[in-house]
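Q: Could you predict the 3D structure of acetate--CoA ligase?
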Amino acid sequence: MKKVYTHGKQLRENYGTEYRRSIENKEEFFGEQARILLNFSKDFSKTYTVDSASSRIKWFEDGEINACYNAVDRHAISTPNKTAIVYEDDSERVTEMSYQELLQEVLIFSKYLQSKDVKKGDTVCIYMPMEPKALIASLACARLGVSHTVVFGGFSAESLALRMEDSDAVWLITSDHTFRGGKRIDYLGNVASALEILKSGESPSCLRGMLICNKESIPSEVLSKTKGHLEIIDLLSDLPKETLSIEDVPCVSVPSEHTLFHLYTSGSTGRPKGLSHSTAGYLLYAALTTLICFDIKEDDRFFCTAELGWITGHSYVMYGPLTLGITTVVFGGVPTFPDPLRLFRSVERMRATHLYTAPTVIRLLQKSLPTCLVRPYDINESRDNLTPAVDHVPNSPISSRSIFTHGVTDTFDRSRYYKEYNASEVALDKIDLSSLRVLGSVGEPINKGAYVWFSMYFGNGVLPVIDTYWQTEAGGVMLCPLISVTEYKPESASFPFFGMQPVVMKKTTEVEDPSSHKVEEVVGQTGILLFKDFWPGIARTIVKNHERYCSAYLQYPGYFYTGDEVLKDGNGYYWIRGRIDDVINVAGHRLSTAEIESAVCSVQGVAEAAALGEEDEVTGQGVTIFIVKSSDVPEAELFAQIKAVLRKRIGSVVNPKRLLSCPELPKTSTGKMMRRVLRKILEGQEVGDVSTCINPDSITFAKASIAK
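A: Sure. Here are the predicted structure tokens for acetate--CoA ligase:
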């Protein structure tokens, strides 16, 4: 794999030339990348075709491949003792697994599924906590040519049942329990309820059996709740402990376009969309974006905090790093448990070279740590430069560790802080983060305050943040800055990845009528983000509903519709402004919620913000902002500061109709704000399905803030 890392360095350093080639000669470019990064059991004859009539996209046609071979077998052969997975559980225990050991575990799961006649073309549902066995089960499916559907472990029984039914899953792999944030979470209760839902459905379920990855013996009364609904229930502890070879369960070659996995979007309204991703195209795109966007080297240890139940976990915990033969970190804990420095210690323990996480995690850490730790920088909003606040600490340049050693006492009560947390546990000066080379952000635009804080406290003010923009439908990064190539601008996703042709479409009446086929590009003003033509990692369809896929994403022929608003500046940088439906129209002025929220979060004392439009008799819509405080600043004073900053940064048109303070805001497990829920609360409507909300108490808090 050494040539792969060298190849990645060359591509990145020659970004301008190679990007043009990836657009002007797409087939040559991606055909070359596929043959360098992947092993095909049968070479492809056509790199890329698209049927405009049926909107069927194909990459690497006539080729055959196996994802498990590319992610596991070839590395187990070439570097058997290299660490494949580093796992840290909720209690901070760390275990490591080599590529040879990973292969053995995959073979055990594969042999089990094979013995149950689970075969190529079938689908297996995986409902597990974030632990290595979730990856192993997924890779075992890929080995047999079986599609996997991973369901986030925090989902309800109804959500699990819907996904098993919609994907026609023939087998379920689950866990008995896990610990998260110090609390025991049992899985089998939800599983039993989901099976009951399937049994009561109008049509018979395809599900035939279940494997429980048990950590302890399971009481008979618990098993009896599920045995009435399935033919077969097996325990991992009962499987034979044998050493297997590759020949015992050989990889099954599948066509390049074979569905590697279905992944359901969490979320908004209506039935979730099961997006189907191909094998060769997706695998290449996950590997290539990992290699290029994150400057991957041979001995890297890639730490992405995402759950496997989401696309980020698929691409940047599992398939991307493993296909490249590096070490991936599987994080089974909570970033702030048992104290706010958990994530810092995790980086040190695992000697992570990369930390890829969500802005929500960063803001949560900001809120959890003392005030003096939250603001090491003087964030001058008129400049993009990140200037150290050296006035407060002698011997500049400042470092996150030096705050503790220079006795800063004027901004917070140290004795109170150390009373809450053991000093030996939380002293940043004792935590070594020198292994980190790259920081990354994913899930939503990162506001400048969070960007600065992340760079300062995890990167010592030296490491920039790779702010990545992409979607579940894309399979991997679409826009991002490149290390040593791009000038970094906080809050900008920078430039397109290879093969991506972003188009900022002018918002005209034609936008409401896709049949007009009019796509007029604009620069210097906000428009709708489209991508011209298609790339290897794009999802190919929605399970059982290709028509919905076409209407949702391909409504403008030849373009992929993102549903996001964006601004392209005169230097070619792209600034994501939020979803199309997250735009507030105040007296004819279209205001971006992302822009408003970024301004609000720049106010010291604000940890998070959510801006929404609310009906107004005079202006049509007014701006209502929910905030989460990060300090004890009185509300009246804080609200006055927020209004002043909004006037200064955006204009007097942003005069909030209401400012509401809550202890927390509703989010999905990926950290995305559930604005739909907040909007329903504002409108006095029922919030509907909130099964994806990981903090349901926040809904009560939001309602209470309105009722004040």
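Q: Anything worth pointing out?
A: The chain is about 35% helix and 25% strand.
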